[in-house]
Each structure stands twice: as structure tokens, then as C-alpha cells.
Amino acid sequence: MAEDKEVTYFKLDEVSKHNNVKSLWIVIHNKIYDVTQFVDTHPGGTEVLREQAGKIASEAFDDIGHSTDAKMLQKEYCIGELHPDDRPETDEYFSPSPEPEPDTPKSFDWSRLFIPALVACGIALVYGYFNSEDI
Q1: Which of 32, 25, 29 is nearest to 10 (CA)?
Q2: How many Å apart are CA 99 and CA 107, to the nearest integer?
Q3: What is the pTM of this model?
Q4: Share of the chain above pLDDT 70, in %
């Protein structure tokens, strides 16, 4: 759903009608996703999405701990938002999820290089010791 478009709202009873593989909608953090085309390629399997079809799936989505890539992929399937009258008020799972940050270059982590280099030096010393002619 592009940011410059007007938001389309759906009532929960409309979402609940889309509860099968021919038309599968889910609600995650008050956003409606039509994942019909994604069911067969979902990394967690088709059954996971079928169980949540036509329902609010925020808790199930958050419990799995989806990757940043998965959260970015959501935008492709977003078709609207849950109507304000149907939004849960108290459940922590229904607070808007933070927008995933796009992949940004991070500073180089020298510790990731230091340990393998130290191990390689240790192996070289042991190899040199056992292959020296003075033994």
C-alpha cells in the first residue's frame, strides 16, 4: 500500500469472509494483508497462514519473530487497514509495529575478524612447530 494513496478500511466481518486458500486475508497490527498469492511460498508452510485466515494474526506473527525481510515483504500484500471501530483497544499485540528499517551499511565489526585471525595464527604456529626439522 503506497503512502500517497488514501487508506481503504475493512470491517472485521468482511475480513472473516476471506478465510480460505482462494481468498486469504489476515490482520496484523490493524493492517489487512491479502496473502492469497503468498500461501504456497510461505517459508513456514501453508498451514500456518490457513490457521490465521480471516482473523487477527498479530500475536501469531509476533510470536514467530519474523525477519526484517519478512516485515518488508508485508508491504507488497497490504490492501488496507482494519476499520477503527473493529480495532482491539487493550491487547499489546495490536499496537502498531515499528516500520522495519531498510538495510543500511553498518560499521565493520573488527571482533568478527579478530577471533578467526587469532585461531589461524594458532594453527600456523602448531603446524610450524610439528613440521620443523629440529624435532
Answers
A1: 32
A2: 22
A3: 0.62
A4: 79
